[in-house]
């Protein structure tokens, strides 16, 4: 017998069992505790979150630890049910885009353990939540020749009857989103003038047009007939807004004026003075009967129809304010966006006059719109990134950044469905994006909203 073979331990011979001493404590050597009982992750990666970088604006994909994090979160709830006696059975703990990929791992537990609690069974059988996806490209692109490259103008609007109005050169056109038919409403060359702003009324049957010469004309779009014409300002009218039968106009003459279009012969024109430079933003709030105006003097002013002086002046921007939007979820929250030297979106409590939040967007803010279904806003930007951005409020997280325009996205209009926007840029194109979605979830109302309890 060869002794050399005796000195070598065979490969298939197992090592002796460990000795435990006088207490029976199973050895844990060799167990994969980081797999069997993973800890809850401290940081979760969100797949659709976009990091803003001044040098690189592209979205950075999430890391491979995302799946492990989600497994840890759900598996942790399952272990707490079975080991610690918790009762996690709500689908909220499984709100994860990778839940379907983790499900196979958890289903094995049903076969591994003969008995699991009813809470754990319900946890495993919870249907997969559908993840929201925002298209990164527009679903339609239209040519818009002669679209003015002017930050202060407002030449695009979308009516409640699903018709897009657009001012191109000296013409005003209408494009039907139902049948894609294009109609010319008016050529203002006959007045030796050109449009500087347009705005549909609430019913969507009248279109108001502000002109470079300070005149306001209102057209019955079905009959293509001008039913109202008035020289309200001495200089151009870059912005308009409606409140029922009242039309508001802001002008380069630094005045805001309001007129009831039902009785123009009575001369019922009220003028509001306060801005020191051109007025380029207007937004009426029917909730609290207030008008917000933004100007080239870097100020936001709030007006009441019963006073000729501003009831509040908000001064924290460092550039012209064109983008203004009242929150449909919190009656006294106003969002405003500043120009190239400011680049911020600010949120105001219009009861106290304080700025409650601010976003540095790193780009000129041209337009802002709130989602009617969720606490999100969409903004369009000029220098230097020329993009469309979607933000959550009040977390101020960037949801998505949409690129397609090659120049400043100066114009934006929200569709009547509340899900789609149309954007216009100085690259002479109109692009249509789906940015919001209808959600069955109710938005949490602000504690400042005191009117819902009054009937």
From TrEMBL:
Region (Disordered): 1-21
Lineage top rank: taxon: Eukaryota
InterPro entries associated with the record: Cdc20/Fizzy (IPR033010), WD40/YVTN_repeat-like_dom_sf (IPR015943), WD40_CDC20-Fz (IPR056150), WD40_repeat_dom_sf (IPR036322), WD40_rpt (IPR001680)
Polar residues: bias regions: 1-14
CDD domains, per database record: WD40
UniProt KW keywords: Cell cycle, Repeat, WD repeat
Gene Ontology process terms (BP): anaphase-promoting complex-dependent catabolic process; positive regulation of anaphase-promoting complex-dependent catabolic process
A GO cellular-component term linked to this record: anaphase-promoting complex
Boundaries of every CDC20/Fizzy WD40 domain copy: 142-433
A molecular-function term among this protein's GO annotations: anaphase-promoting complex binding
Signal peptide: none
UniProt family annotation: Belongs to the WD repeat CDC20/Fizzy family.
Full protein name: Fizzy-related protein
Native source organism of the sequence: Orchesella cincta (Springtail)
Species lineage: Eukaryota, Metazoa, Ecdysozoa, Arthropoda, Hexapoda
């Amino acid at each position: 017998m060869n002794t050399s073979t005796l000195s070598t331990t065979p490969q298939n011979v197992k090592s002796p069992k460990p000795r435990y001493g006088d207490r029976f404590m199973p050895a844990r050597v060799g167990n994969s505790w980081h797999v069997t009982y993973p800890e809850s992750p401290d940081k979760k990666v969100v797949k659709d979150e976009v990091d803003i970088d001044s040098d690189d604006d592209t979205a950075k994909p999430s890391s491979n630890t995302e799946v492990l994090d989600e497994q840890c979160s759900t598996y942790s709830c399952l272990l707490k049910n079975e080991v610690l006696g918790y009762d996690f059975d709500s689908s909220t703990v499984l709100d994860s885009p990778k839940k379907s990929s983790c499900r196979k791992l958890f289903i094995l537990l049903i076969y591994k353990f003969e008995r699991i609690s009813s809470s754990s069974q319900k946890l495993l059988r919870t249907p997969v939540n559908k993840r929201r996806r925002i298209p990164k490209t527009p679903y339609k692109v239209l040519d818009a020749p002669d679209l003015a490259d002017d930050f202060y103008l407002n030449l695009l609007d979308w009516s409640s009857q699903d018709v897009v109005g657009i001012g191109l050169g000296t013409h005003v056109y209408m494009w039907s989103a139902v049948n894609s038919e294009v109609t010319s409403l008016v050529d203002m060359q006959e007045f030796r003038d050109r449009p500087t702003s347009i705005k549909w009324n609430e019913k969507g049957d009248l279109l108001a047009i502000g002109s470079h010469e300070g005149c306001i004309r209102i057209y019955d779009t079905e009959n293509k007939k001008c039913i109202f014409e008035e020289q309200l300002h001495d200089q151009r009218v870059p912005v308009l807004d409606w409140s029922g039968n009242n039309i508001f106009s802001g002008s380069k003459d630094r005045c805001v004026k309001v007129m009831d279009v039902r009785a123009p012969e009575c001369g019922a024109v009220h003028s509001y003075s306060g801005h020191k430079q051109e007025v380029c933003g207007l937004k009426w709030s029917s909730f609290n009967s207030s008008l917000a105006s933004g100007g080239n003097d870097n100020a936001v002013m709030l007006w009441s129809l019963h006073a000729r002086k501003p009831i509040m002046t908000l001064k924290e921007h460092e550039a012209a304010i064109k983008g203004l939007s009242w929150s449909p979820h919190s009656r006294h929250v106003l969002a405003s966006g500043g120009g190239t030297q400011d680049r911020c979106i600010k949120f105001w409590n219009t009861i106290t006059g304080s700025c409650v939040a601010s976003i540095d967007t790193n780009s000129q803010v041209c337009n802002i719109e709130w989602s009617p279904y969720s606490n999100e806003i969409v903004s369009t930007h000029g220098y230097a990134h020329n993009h469309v951005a979607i933000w959550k409020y009040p977390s101020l997280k960037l949801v998505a950044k949409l690129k397609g325009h090659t120049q400043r996205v100066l114009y934006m209009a929200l569709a009547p469905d509340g899900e789609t926007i149309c954007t216009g840029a100085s690259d002479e194109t109109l692009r249509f994006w789906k940015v919001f979605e209808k959600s069955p979830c109710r938005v949490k109302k602000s504690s400042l909203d005191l009117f819902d309890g009054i009937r």
